UniProtKB/TrEMBL annotation:
<keyword id="KW-0456">Lyase</keyword>
<dbReference type="InterPro" id="IPR008948">
    <property type="entry name" value="L-Aspartase-like"/>
</dbReference>
<dbReference type="GO" id="GO:0016841">
    <property type="term" value="F:ammonia-lyase activity"/>
</dbReference>
<dbReference type="Pfam" id="PF00221">
    <property type="entry name" value="Lyase_aromatic"/>
</dbReference>
<protein>
    <submittedName>
        <fullName>Histidine ammonia-lyase</fullName>
    </submittedName>
</protein>
<dbReference type="InterPro" id="IPR024083">
    <property type="entry name" value="Fumarase/histidase_N"/>
</dbReference>
<feature type="region of interest" description="Disordered">
    <location>
        <begin position="1"/>
        <end position="37"/>
    </location>
</feature>
<dbReference type="InterPro" id="IPR001106">
    <property type="entry name" value="Aromatic_Lyase"/>
</dbReference>
Length: 557
């Protein structure tokens, strides 16, 4: 195979998808399910995170395109030329971090790569779930296919074979500060050399045993191979894909619940007029307004003469700008991860066309850290609106409905006591919105004196989702009860789907009862894929606002 011409490292390297002997265009709707195996071809065009997510599903396989193999071979040839030379190259013939000044002898070069993997396997704590770790392994394979790492083709082939065989490295959840995920990616390398553990069908197994049962020999690391596996933000990227999927689904559900609240509150729908949104075209606001127009299309709120306020409380009136800002923050986070997944972020980086290996800072991920901190703040903004809409619907002075939405009146508390739960959840959401990217301690004898704390920002956003989901469930309970008591002539098709799903899960409140279990049942409803899938379908194009796309944001019209 000829290594020339060689596309630059990081040039579009993702894939089309092959199934049953066909190659489908990468801008299609993604892999189609079937009884045969779906294989994703890595190396030709960039992927959006939706396609990353699809490729990592259980049973999916990956293979490298001819262009990717040419890049890998060309970069490897450069590494091998430098391995025998006198010029110092970081991590190839020198130590790392504080040991930068140490020059490896030719006899130490290969042994150092195993030493590097073992000595930097420093992850601690509960491991990531198997599906998330599989995303991480895939992200590292994609980065290696860029050609900038100079990894030996045989080692990359082993990682691909592990992915295809369902051997997923067990990766602890803590141990990275975001200046690459060396200490966590090392656990990928540890599994590849037959040490550590892997997940196989949900069970944890010694890596050596699992490799042998799959007919795979442990990797024999040559010059730079260990560093090539380690020097990556693949752990952050894989975790980010999983968290962004959950965030997108919850954001869409929250918007649908807010629309149901508009029905129960009898909010004025004119606030979503496209002319209003376009007059101040802040990023995301026009699409958020379109999302609410789609959610309320066909509602009795639009009927001539329908009772409505000239101007509602801000928790209703600001839905388009608040949700639009969250949409903008979400897309910024997605774009930051897409850039990292589809990039050559190695240090040092092999420039095959020029025959050079140069030190870089491409491993540093402040863009992801800042984007995820911002998205957590956007989540807190959403939470404030959620909490106040629920409070407004419980206020008879605002709605004209029975006090606390109790149909029996008197001393009945109705749903009002849930306000305390909402306040507690809102405080927790706000706590998780505190930025994590501000603090870093210098490490490696002070050589590494800046770090974005990217893994922490991602984990913190994921932890914010649970109290936020519970808070949205409370709004949904209150909104459904308000709709029952207001009894509008008809709901919009979208809000009707949500209201019906709510009533399948929880009966209307006819007398005081324990409402904590009701919230838990709604949370379970929101966690499942069925409701969000039905709502996306009913919303049409507007339902794609909060989603992971098959093609990168930068590549979309």
């Amino acid at each position: 195979m000829s290594p020339s011409p060689t596309p630059r490292p990081g040039a579009g390297r993702w894939c089309s998808e092959r199934r049953a002997g066909r190659t489908n265009p990468p801008r299609g709707e993604g892999p189609r399910e079937g009884s045969d195996v779906t294989t994703h071809v890595l190396g030709d065009v960039p992927f959006g995170l939706g396609l990353v997510e699809a490729a990592a599903r259980p049973g999916r396989r990956v293979t490298l395109s001819a262009a990717a193999r040419a890049r890998v071979a060309a970069a490897r040839a450069v590494v091998e030329r430098h391995a025998g030379g006198d010029e110092p190259v970081y991590g190839l013939n020198t130590g790392l971090g504080g040991n930068l000044a140490y020059r490896l002898t030719p006899g130490e070069v290969e042994a150092f790569q195993v030493q590097l993997v073992r000595g930097r396997s420093i992850g601690v704590g509960e491991p990531f779930p198997e599906p998330v770790a599989r995303l991480m392994l895939l992200c590292r394979i994609v980065g290696l296919a860029a050609g900038g790492s100079g990894i030996s083709p045989a080692v990359l082939d082993l990682l691909v074979a592990m992915f295809d065989a369902g051997l997923t490295p067990v990766i602890p959840g803590r141990g990275s500060i975001g200046a690459a995920d060396l200490g966590l990616c090392a656990h990928i390398g540890l599994a590849a050399i037959g040490r550590g553990e892997v997940f196989v069908g949900g069970a944890r197994r010694p890596a050596a045993e699992a490799l042998a049962e799959a007919g795979l020999a442990p990797a024999r690391l040559a010059a730079k191979d260990g560093l090539a596996i380690l020097n990556s933000s693949a752990v952050s990227c894989g975790h980010a894909v999983a968290v962004l999927r959950d965030w997108a689904d919850l954001a869409l559900l929250s918007a649908a619940v807010a629309a149901l609240s508009c029905e129960g509150y009898a909010a004025n729908p004119r606030i979503f007029d496209p002319r209003l949104a376009s007059a101040r075209p802040a990023r995301g606001q026009e699409r958020a307004a379109a999302l609410f127009r789609a959610a309320l299309d066909g509602s009795a709120l639009h009927a001539p003469g329908a009772a409505r306020s000239v101007q509602d409380a801000l928790s209703f009136r600001t839905l388009a700008p608040v949700v639009g800002t969250a949409l903008a923050a979400f897309e910024a986070a997605v774009e930051s991860v897409e850039t990292e997944v589809n990039a050559a972020a190695d240090n040092p980086l092999v420039l095959a066309d020029d025959g050079l290996i140069l030190s870089t800072a491409n491993f540093h991920t402040p863009a992801i850290a800042l984007a995820f901190d911002a998205l957590a703040i956007a989540g807190a903004q959403l939470a404030t609106g959620v909490a106040w809409r629920a409070a407004k619907m419980l206020d008879a002075r605002m709605t004209g409905l029975p006090r606390y939405l109790s149909p029996v009146g008197g001393a009945s508390a109705g749903l009002n006591a849930l306000g305390k739960t909402a306040a507690a959840l809102h405080a927790e959401v706000r706590l998780k919105a505190m930025p994590a990217s501000l603090d870093a301690l210098p490490v490696s004898d002070g050589v590494e004196d800046h770090a974005p704390q990217t893994p922490l920002t991602i984990r913190k956003l994921g932890e914010q989702l649970e109290p936020l989901r519970m808070l949205v469930a409370i709004e949904a309970l209150v909104a459904a009860q308000a709709v029952d008591l207001r009894a509008p002539p008809h709901l919009a098709p979208v809000t009707r789907i949500l209201h019906a799903a709510m009533r399948d899960a929880v009966p209307r409140l006819d007398e005081d009862r324990e409402t904590g279990p009701d919230v838990d049942r709604v949370v379970a409803l929101m966690r499942g894929p069925e409701l969000v899938g039905r709502l996306r379908a009913a919303l049409g194009d507007a339902g794609n606002a909060f989603d992971l796309r098959m093609t990168p944001i930068r590549g979309q019209a």
